[in-house]
Amino acid sequence: MPVPWFLLSLALGRNPVVLSLERVVGPQDTARCSPGLSCHLWDGDVLCLPGSLASAPGPVLVPTRLQTELVLRCHEETDCDLCVRVAVHLAVHGYWGDPDKEEKFGRAADPELEEPRNVSLQAHVVLSFQAYPTAHCVLLEVQVPAALVQPGQSVGSVVFDCFEAALGAEVQIWSYTQPRYQKELNLTQQLPDCGGLEVQDNIQSCWALPWLNVSADGEDVRLVLDVSEEQRFGLSLYWNQAQGPIKPWWHSNLTGPQTITLNHTDLVPCLCIQVWPLEPDSVRTSICPFKEDPRAHRNLWRAARLQLLPPRGWQLDAPCSLPAEATLCWQALDGGPCLPLVPPLPRENVTVNKVLEFPLLKGHPNVCVQVSTWEKLQLQECLWADSLGPLKDDMLLVETRGPQDNGSLCALEPSGCTPLLSRASTRAARLGEQLLQDVQSGQCLQLWDNDLGALWACPMDKYIHQRWVLVWLACLLLAAVLFLLLLLKMNHVKAAARSRAALLLYSADDASFERLVGALASALCQLPLRVAVDLWSRRDLSAQGALAWFHAQRRQTLQEGGVVVLLFSPGAVALCREWLQDATSAPRAHGPHDAFAASLSCVLPDFLQGRAPGRYVGAYFDKQMPADAVPALFRSVPVFSLPSQLPDFLGTLQGPAAPRPRRLAERAEQVSRALQPALDSCFRPPAAPGTGRGMGPEAGDRT
């Protein structure tokens, strides 16, 4: 029988702070101002277009700070929604005239210039609110009386009630004026979920959350979900990385109740559990129960890996963030301790899964990386030993430079840094004069150099094995030749295997078609092809906008000799005909991530002006539409039916690097097999969901 270890509800969420929220009654949005100001909320939405910066004709009102507050918008006592109240603080920006002249001659020099200053100021303040997948903008008209108009001074604030948002969502808020006189303000906020709110009884979407019991089963961990037999829910395990987006690990759709066993070796501090009912607009709630688990921290360091990224870069790979520091050290051939190079080189804070570089001029096999916490040394790797050969019997000399160009040299040894011209009994002291001559004659390799000092690696083998010098030189020359040949071979293989870029454009007709597009893009990546598709770049689309994202991807793809793939569907054909039938009218609004609709303004001119051949390829699924459904304008480039014409389609995509017909047919068969489940799901009624019990990570798909 499992021992109770950690009992909690997923309603606890990822925010431990419990909030008590103010209630706002009624569905209408409102605006109110600070005393002395007047404001008006315009009816309806406005376009979220900041426009370009304009010069202020005089004093103008500008937003200076954004503040948010969570409230409840209640339609009934137990029927409320989470809402974000936004306060915009305003100030006067600019002057009526030249402030330098006013300061020099005084403000009362010309009474006629004082008259226009005794007027009130008016501003149109825009609030833009984005919470995937929706965006909403409102316009607030604010008027400030003349008595409060003082350049550079705050005049008060305007408060908007309120933007409705989903529990646990990440929202982005922008504020600017029309016209815009400065860079827009922005604020990003992670909203709490049901566990962070003292309102579970008032928000109906919190009522159906499954309960989770986490208990120890020997060394392993057991997750028991107390869910009724009829309720279906989704369960996801992911790594919640502080640096970068969350990284999915395993997910599955289940029917309760369920018991899932996690191996103790899979536990890491950032492993989190997310669960949600499989219902429309259901709340997803997460917990991260292993943050303080000692086993999880031990597993994290066991999973951490240091890898070389030539020429002087390195990277620490780990599933979670690590509070650690890294420094270079010098590993002598005799196997003693690795001697840290601090100072003169500084320590670096470690950012996992990110390329870091140390300021070395040259690499050396004896230079290693140490990663340590405040407690102890955790990792040490001589990263460059594999590429630069084995450890060398070299002496590391540290040069220290003074303010009057007077420097000194010492040799780094286990006992410390020994001055070269000292009377110590160490090897460096005995060979001090010879090592100094080696530095002056250029026989030592300079590893690092700046105004404060330098590092030199001086060979010592000639002082120990003089008669083997020629043999060692021959061996080193042979090793260098082999290494050069290996590099040439690697470069040749990399050049031969360099994949061609492909930008995949499609219309998101429905969710099943998007899954089919995702399966096609994933299969093409195995050819190899470097595939870009908006389905994998939702964060960039949200930040840049669909049109800007398409422009950047299209330019990069074509500059690299790639190809743009137009994947036609009934929705895509309808969009094309809409543009072709009435090119002068503005296109209807589309979703914020609809790159296909945004791209037509650039794609159609390429076809109309004859620039499309060689740059574009068309395709469609033969189970979805006939060949003659593709508009005639787009048939100036090859258009393939999938999956029946997969070999020709793949050969066109890969271009001159396409393999032989037999190999191409094998790859087409692989792509066809990868597409088949998605094709069946898209064009056939879905099969009845299974009701199996006792599913674990081994039964689902690891991501």
TrEMBL record:
It is found in: Cell membrane; Membrane. Residues 675-703 are annotated as: Disordered. The chain crosses the membrane at residues 468-488. One of its GO terms (molecular function) is interleukin-17 receptor activity. Its main location: membrane. Residues 1-20 form the signal peptide. It is a single-pass membrane protein; Single-pass type I membrane protein. This is Interleukin-17 receptor C isoform X2.
